[in-house]
Design brief:
The chain is of the alpha/beta class. The chain contains 11 helices and 15 strands. Helix 2 runs parallel beside helix 3 and helix 10 crosses helix 11. The protein is globular and about 70 Å long. The structure holds guanosine-5'-diphosphate (GDP) (2 copies).
């Protein structure tokens, strides 16, 4: 589990702006799924040599609860989830009743709270931080999320607040799996089937609490860790069943996994919610396997699998490179078919291509299908190099990146996929201007 920092504060103080500052922008250039809006509320970040996770509780809208109820619940989420809380206030409006309301909510926790006074865009506004001492959480830090002022100091303080001996226990050796999907598709059942025992199911009695548990297991000599999201849903607190809360859970699991098992219900068509969930996998650039569950109760003939596969590829266009498996979690059928797909996705995710071979592919691809003129210029590609894995990330040097049409980048990605096996893994292609 990473060290977790939650951002709280009333609306419009700049929580999401600060969140974005803290995590830096990590745009994925393979991102072109239309109509999928995804608000980021959870991400891992790094400062100096430490890494930690940031949660923007402002993104957790709790249905149509009244305003004060909303911020109360957001504060509760922060207290429950985080190791450290950042309480954002607004220098321009000064201390408000709502700030005091949130402060009161935070007093009972023994977690450290840092007050961050946002919108201190220039030195004249520095005076405004003093009144926030009244909140009783010690020295406030002045920042401007918009201009990036003071954010470094905040990050310093966060890192200093991390316990010396904090270990981000991510089981480095094992393949980390997250089981994700829309409610009721069978995530808990699948997790149980994989683990081969009723380990995830917990009591439905209200108030039963249980911490997230990552369960390691070994299969045919390969080590895995299954990141628990499914069981948590049943912890019994009122707002844990809300969509956004389960989204937060899913995001945390996706961020921490290598391979996401995207579970869909075989008895119905793939729907928008499935898309939404799968969209996160793309955002976080994780490897994946699509798991069609409840195969036991699907009316099928010899064509059904093919038809279902096609409909999945049609819907999840950005998962065209992902394998689809058909299982029955409940009946414990075909569970074994998952592991070859998982292992393959993980291998693809870690694949390194020798530079010389890769450049042959680049040159051949360009020769076969030269780029058209775009933005008043013609792209001239020099060479490419793989800069990292997880996912495989390539930098392509070109005379001017603005001459490269998006579809051409897509073409190059497809050529790479034809030349090398990247089944189950996304790829990142980054254009750089050759000096
Ligand atoms: P949230 O509701 O707390 O998540 O707040 P947002 O991040 O959405 O910001 C609310 C508004 O405050 C937006 O219009 C931001 O542009 C603005 N804002 C955020 N940070 C700053 C800042 O440092 N200075 C100024 N002047 N405006 C800011
Ligand atoms: P979750 O909300 O995604 O964790 O879904 P659950 O694992 O709690 O399952 C939701 C419902 O679907 C339960 O009633 C399960 O018994 C049922 N279910 C799960 N997997 C299967 C399956 O493979 N076949 C059938 N017929 N039902 C299943």
């Amino acid at each position: 589990m990473p060290f977790k920092v939650a951002i709280v504060g009333r609306p419009n103080v700049g929580k999401s702006s600060l969140f974005n500052r803290m995590i830096g922008s990590r745009l994925s250039i393979t991102d072109d799924a239309p109509g999928v809006t995804r608000d980021r509320i959870y991400a891992k970040t790094e400062w100096l040599t430490k890494s930690f996770a940031v949660i923007d509780t402002g993104g957790i809208e709790i249905s149509d609860a009244p305003f004060l109820e909303q911020i109360k619940q957001q504060a509760d989420v922060a207290i429950q989830e985080a190791d450290l809380i950042i309480f954002v206030v607004d220098s321009r409006s000064g201390l408000t009743d709502d700030d005091l309301f949130i402060a009161k909510r935070l007093y009972p926790t023994d977690k450290k709270v840092i007050v961050v006074v946002n919108k201190v865009d220039n030195v004249d506004l520095k005076q405004s931080i003093y009144e926030f001492y009244a909140l009783g959480f010690g020295d406030p830090i002045a920042v401007s999320a918009n201009h990036g002022i003071g954010v470094g100091e905040l990050m310093d303080q966060i890192v200093q607040s991390m316990p010396e001996d904090f270990v981000d226990d991510e089981h480095e050796e094992a393949i980390r799996l997250a089981v994700i999907g829309y409610p009721n598709v069978g995530k808990s059942s699948l997790t149980n089937a994989i683990l081969g025992q009723e380990r995830v199911i917990v009591s439905d009695i209200a108030g039963t609490t249980r911490d997230a548990i990552d369960t390691p297991f070994t299969k045919d000599g390969v080590e895995y860790v299954i990141i628990d999201t499914a069981g948590i849903r049943k912890r019994g607190q009122v707002y844990e069943n809300t969509e956004k809360y389960s989204v937060l859970r899913a995001l945390q699991a996706i961020e921490r996994c290598d391979v996401a098992l995207i579970v869909v219900d075989g008895t119905r068509d793939v729907i928008a919610q499935d898309m939404h969930v799968a969209g996160y996998i793309q955002d976080y650039a994780k490897a994946s396997v699509v798991v069609v569950n409840k195969w036991d109760i699907v009316q099928k003939d010899e064509k059904t699998m093919g038809v279902m596969k096609q409909s999945i590829y049609d819907t999840f266009k950005f998962l065209a490179y992902t394998e689809v498996c058909f299982v029955s979690a409940k009946e414990n059928k075909r569970i074994d078919t998952l592991f070859p797909a998982i292992n393959k996705a993980y291998e693809s995710y870690n694949r390194r291509i020798p530079t010389s071979v890769m450049n042959d592919v680049l040159l051949d691809s360009v020769a076969m299908n030269p780029p058209a003129q775009f933005n008043h210029g013609k792209a001239k590609f020099s060479y490419m190099t793989q800069v990292s894995t997880k996912p495989p990330t390539f930098v392509i040097f070109v005379n001017d990146p603005s001459f490269v049409h998006f579809s051409y980048l897509r073409y190059l990605e497809n050529q790479l996929r034809k030349a090398f096996d990247f089944t189950g893994s996304p790829l990142k292609l980054i254009l750089r201007k050759k000096e």
